[in-house]
Amino acid sequence: MTANFGFWDYFIFIAYALLILGVGLWVSRDKKGHQKNAEDYFLASKSLPWWAIGASLIAANISAEQFIGMSGSGFASGLAIASYEWMAALTLLIVGKYFLPIFIEKGLYTIPEFVEKRYSTNLKTILAVFWIALYVFINLTTVLYLGALALETIMGVPMIYGVLGLALFAAAYSLYGGLSAVAWTDVIQVVFLILGGLVTTYLALDTVSGGNGFVAGLSRVYEEVPERFAMILDESNPEYKNLPGIAVLVGGMWVANLYYWGFNQYIIQRTLAAKSLKEAQKGILLAAFLKLLIPLIVVIPGITAYVMINDPEIMANLGDAGLKNLPSLEQADKAYPWLLQFLPTGLKGVAFAALAAAIVSSLASMLNSTSTIFTMDIYKQYINKNASDKSTVGMGRISAGVALIIAALLAPQLGNLDQAFQFIQEYTGIVSPGILAVFMLGLFWKKTTNKAAIIGALASIPIAMYFKVAPNGWSNSSVFVDVPFMHQMGYTVLLTMVVIIIASLIQHKGKDDEKGIDIKKGLFKTSPLFNIGAFAVMIILVLLYSVFWN
């Protein structure tokens, strides 16, 4: 086996890059006599069909943090990390049925815009700043780092050049074309992403089985490490702190997923760009089915890599190349890039194109959403209230460029990360519970007031930091224990909601807020297709958890 790229690997990868750039620039072009306006740039002219929405949701979501970070977590802890994907399928159904009808009815461009309509401009600005900071300093930075890590591991490209190359690739079409370029290239990206991921999984399992195929390989992996196929971890497991048993199903995982899929700009923006509510819901349903498949291409390879490095016979067959960039429990994120080294010539190019598709599509999505929030909620609100379409689109491009430069400067500093996926979840979990509390009460409790929501949003950060810092700082005290971050998120969202409810009742003495949302009869009615599809997703989830419970 060879770990080097061959001619056909380079050919396939370059062809993929040219295809994405070509399609991105082609759909970005201005029609004759038409100046691109804010709806064109930020919402793709509200023209996306269901299949483009579903594909774009997955392409925006699946990035280096899944391919590399989640495979690393699979290497370290096993299939339990797949709960993020399988619970996301259920969360998508909730978002499609109960959140989207309200968002689309209000004709939103951004999630902070909903905050302004339901609460106030002040709270919108607070949350807009939260999101911009989160996207730039956590999401963009981590995706760039993990992508560059893959380039460094597989092709020997120095980290700094990998960061710059990925940043320029994502910027080449997304800054010019906006959401339209991002969404339509995502349709192509998701094909590469899934096919390339399946190829990697198949060949890794085929290697483990000694050439006897996928099923034999999966059977052997299960026989070798059955403990790594437990979905619900007990307290004796070293990874319990990251995936705390049954709380994964009934606790903080819901905070992470409801926030991410329901109130995260770079995800929900695709559904806001739909032709209609029904089209958006069909796209959500497609994404939910695809989510059931994702662990097969991002978690199973990590578990397979763990079996391979602990099998002397397999390692001997890999030769000296097998010792190059070897993953370990301390450097679990090397598992997926390590596997890619051993794919046959040609297929290595396909698999690497899949990884690049995941990275670049997510970078483009995050850039577009960062620029949307900054332009629509900061620039047009405070800097240039009468901005023309031309200056609005121009500012969108400039702000995306600045965000990318900041992230590119910070990315190389993340070199000491172990499981990057868990890092993202943990630090997003400081901000997300407060935002989720504000939105859930704003959507479904008419008595929630603006003042109470601001108090809750600001209070959520010290509450979250208390649970993150205090238990560790008082480890010798019987009062405090080391709290898993999923418990931290669950406790934070509940306490924040209590703060908001008490403040609202004190302010209005139990009366409805004047901006409270009237839930009209029939608002949450969904089509027979959505209902049947949702039922099928839930049946599959029950079967999966029944088989892999422990």
Automatic annotation (TrEMBL):
The chain crosses the membrane at residues 6-27, 48-64, 84-104, 125-148, 154-175, 187-205, 243-263, 284-309, 350-374, 395-415, 427-445, 452-469, 489-508, 529-548. Belongs to the sodium:solute symporter (SSF) (TC 2.A.21) family. Its main location: membrane. Keywords: Membrane, Transmembrane, Transmembrane helix. This is Sodium/sugar symporter. The keyword Ribosomal protein does not apply. It is found in: Membrane. It is a multi-pass membrane protein. It comes from Aureibaculum flavum.
